[in-house]
Amino acid sequence: QVKVVESGGGSVQAGGSLRLSCAASGFTFSTYSYCLGWFRQAPGKEREGVAVIYPLGGSTFDADSVKGRFTLSQDNAKNTLFLQMNSLKPEETAMYYCAAGGPWYCVNRWITSKYSYWGQGTQVTVSS
Hints:
This protein is mainly beta. It contains no helices and 11 strands. It has strands spanning 3-7, 10-13, 18-25, 35-41, 48-54, 59-62, 70-75, 80-85, 94-101, 117-118, 122-127. A hairpin with a 6-residue loop joins strand 4 and strand 5. The mean pLDDT is 95.
């Protein structure tokens, strides 16, 4: 059974940094063709994609709004995904979710219905 669990959220001031983690189980990064993504949802807004990774090949994809500030990485030994978020903005306050789908090559990667497995979310609050 595939499961993803997020951690690492918290409160920071504008311009600060946070690192989110997503521990995956039920499949291994180095063996299975899964796509993993980070999404966020602020109150009253739709869930939006932040960054996506295809762990088997190592390809990463960033939303335009976070390019140059957010970085995805993976630890195959721990089957864990990391999202390093720098220069955070108050408007990026949201619940951040990790999601997994597969087998899949991350085509149409920003469509939430493509992901079958979601974590419970971790709150990120950025104050001005």
